[in-house]
Amino acid sequence: MSRTILAILLLVLGLGLAGPGKIGPALAAGSDGDVTSAAQSDRITEPDSWRAIRQGEAGYIGGQPAARGVLIQSEGEIWRNVRNGKLAVWAGWLLAGVTLAIAAFYVIRGKIMMEGGPSGQTILRFNKMERVGHWLTAGSFLVLALTGLNLLFGRWIIEPWLGKSLFSWISWAGKWLHNIAGFVFIAGLVMIFFLWARDNLWDRYDWGWIKGGGGLLKKGVHPPAAKFNFGQKTQFWMVILVGALVSSTGLNLLFPFTMGDIHAMQVMHLIHTALAVVMVLFILGHIYIGTIGMEGASTAVTTGYVDREWAREHHAAWVEDVEKREPKAAE
Is NADP tagged as a keyword (predicted)? Predict the structure, then answer.
């Protein structure tokens, strides 16, 4: 019944946009956008029209370009079922699973402490420009993630609590925040690429870090690492590459028909959503380690300084290199 009502509303909208004298051609248009004459359309019955649509032919609104004048097309229902079906279900299970896994890791491993205790001496890890780049990317991503997850799950999780009216206003505001934050995210993405790409290339310490489990699994194990360890490098390149794909598909949705027709946009929407969920899954672990998961890590992106003991335990090769370049104290 709901599909019938939706189809009728779309049909009425299309007829209204078509204008007087264009009703027949609008209904009778084929998949190539050609419009039959009014006399021919009069001979086409309603069941014939819907049968053609179900077989893949699209109806078009008269007076509009073929790309923008699609009245109804069966692929839209396929897109809707995938988006609200398998995509949403798998995304929900993965998000819940990763969250539970992080919670279990915290219970079993506990917070990763500085084994020697804080030294009281600090070392500059990230300068001001690096911190700006980090927070441009991270802050905008948080806005994008929250508003995007609301678009994906809000109707089922949030709307029953808030009611339709309040939820609609929140979603409307979230849509605009999502669109604006997207441009900030792209700017941050470009910035951190030029700041950190060189430091995130493979080096001689990475294989040892992998074999040692990054020092996360056992206490007392601290594989040496340069400025970024292998885990951070994986995180960085995921953000750069997946973020670029999410950004490009998002721009296509924000500016319709610039990179493809309506079918391409439906596919890009599914890709955009799926890859955004992948980013959220990775970032959950990053947020955990940078906050409650590891002692002394959060100050790196707030003040820019970290305790030297923390730096020696997690980035010994980097500390050694920095200390070589520090001016020697006068004897």
Answer: no
Model confidence pLDDT, tens digit, residues 2-54: 444 334 333 333 433 333 333 333 333 333 444 444 434 444 467 777 777 66
* Amino acid at the residue 170: I
Q: 159 to each of 153, 165, 322, how far by Cα in Å?
A: 9, 9, 53
Question: Which residues share a beta bridge with 306?
Answer: 123
Q: Tell me if 22 sits within 8 A of 62, measured CB to CB.
A: yes
C-alpha 290: how far from its chain's center? Answer: 20
Long-range contacts of 13-17 (CB under 8 A, 24+ apart): 13/71, 14/59, 14/61, 14/71, 14/72, 17/61, 17/62, 17/63, 17/64
Determine the length of the chain: 331
Considering the entire predicted model, what is its pTM?
A: 0.79
Q: How many CB atoms neighbour CB 21 within 10 A?
A: 9
The pLDDT value given to residue 304: 96
Name beta bridge partners: 72.
Answer: 59
At 250-275, the pLDDT tens digits run 999 999 888 888 888 899 999 999 99
How far apart (Å, rounded) are the C-alpha atoms in residues 244 and 166? 33
Written as six digits, the tokens of 103 are 């919670």
Name the 3-class secondary structure at 305: strand
Whole-number pLDDT of residue 325:
83
| Residue ranges of domains in the chain, CATH in brackets | 2-73 (no CATH), 76-126+197-325 (1.20.950.20)
Q: Are 290 and 301 in contact (CB under 8 A)?
A: yes
